[in-house]
Write a structure and sequence with these properties.
By secondary structure, the chain is an all-alpha fold. The protein is 92% helix and 0% strand. The chain has two helices and no strands.
C-alpha cells in the first residue's frame, strides 16, 4: 500500500509541477516542442506499421 501511495503522490506532484512550468513562456515552448516531437515519433511508428 505504501508503494501505491508513493506512486500516486509522485504522479500528483508531477502534474502540479507541469502545470507550474506551463505557466511560463519558456515552459509553454518546452511543451510545444515535446508535443511536436511526440507527434513526429507517433506518425513515424504509424507509417511504419501500415507499410
Amino acid at each position: 500500500m505504501g508503494k501505491f501511495l508513493a506512486a500516486l503522490m509522485g504522479l500528483v506532484l508531477g502534474f502540479i509541477g507541469a502545470h507550474v512550468v506551463n505557466e511560463t513562456p519558456e515552459g509553454r515552448a518546452f511543451f510545444a516542442r515535446a508535443r511536436s516531437t511526440l507527434k513526429t515519433f507517433t506518425q513515424g511508428v504509424r507509417d511504419a506499421y501500415r507499410s
